[in-house]
Amino acid sequence: EVQLVESGGGLVQPGGSLRLSCAASGFTFGSYDMSWVRQAPGKGPEWVSGFNSGSGSTYYADSVKGRFTISRDNAKNTLYLQMNSLKPEDTGVYYCHADQLVLSERHDYWGQGTQVTVSS
Q1: ∠ CA 16-91-6, rounded to 5°
Q2: Distance in Å from the first CA to the final CA of the chain
Q3: Is residue 31 helix, strand or coil?
């Protein structure tokens, strides 16, 4: 059974930090591109950051560049998102996403999300 389980969310003051984790199981984690997507209350999903499995390249939305860092530990089948200098507009549910395209066939999976609230 495929599972992506996020953790590490919570309530933090503006300027604070959180580290999200996404534990993966049931698929070959190391061969999947991984990303974080968030959804603020009343808004649509927003892609936050991605990690390419082949090149090792990382990508960030302009809104988080310089503040967030994505990383992965393939030995532990875990994806991370270090979030620093948090702002109230970073509030939302953060989802972990796994994606693989092989011979025109896409496989992708989503976690259940973890709530991040930035407020004083």
Answers
A1: 85
A2: 40
A3: helix
CA distance 120 to 114: 19
Q: What is the pLDDT of residues 19-52, one digit of tens each?
A: 999 999 999 999 999 999 999 999 999 999 999 9
Assess contact for 80 and 19: CB atoms under 8 A: yes
Coarse DSSP helix, strand, coil percentages of the chain, rounded to the nearest 5 percent:
5, 55, 40
Paired strand residues for 92:
116
Token digits of residue 113: 């999300």
Helical H segments across the chain, by residue range: none
C-alpha 63, offset from chain centre: 14
